[in-house]
Design a protein that fits this description.
It is built from 4 helices and no strands. The chain has one domain: Non-ribosomal Peptide Synthetase Peptidyl Carrier Protein, Chain A (Orthogonal Bundle), CATH 1.10.1200.10. The protein has 76 residues and is mostly helical. The chain has helices at residues 2-11, 31-45, 56-59, 62-75. It is 57% helix and 0% strand.
């Protein structure tokens, strides 16, 4: 989780990603941020996020995103 938080803080150092659960709803993350996140997650966690998983629910919070990473890691 700390690695993911580091990636997110690199995108927006002014956001408290540990508590924010409206990253998409409040437009904290834009489409470019999502693309960057997907690439960083692939690089750091060796997890490819399929297109059908790129939905707001999976990107609205660091916790939801980490749960997605864990779920996709378990699928391998």
């Amino acid at each position: 989780m700390e690695t993911l938080l580091g990636i997110l803080e690199g995108l927006h150092p002014d956001i408290d990603f540990k508590t924010c659960d409206t990253l998409i709803d409040d437009q904290v993350l834009d489409s470019f941020d999502i693309i960057t996140l997907i690439a960083e997650i692939d690089s750091e966690f060796d997890v490819a996020i399929p297109a059908e998983e790129i939905i707001p629910e999976n990107f609205n919070s660091a916790k939801a995103l980490y749960a997605l990473i864990e779920r996709l890691s378990d699928d391998d």
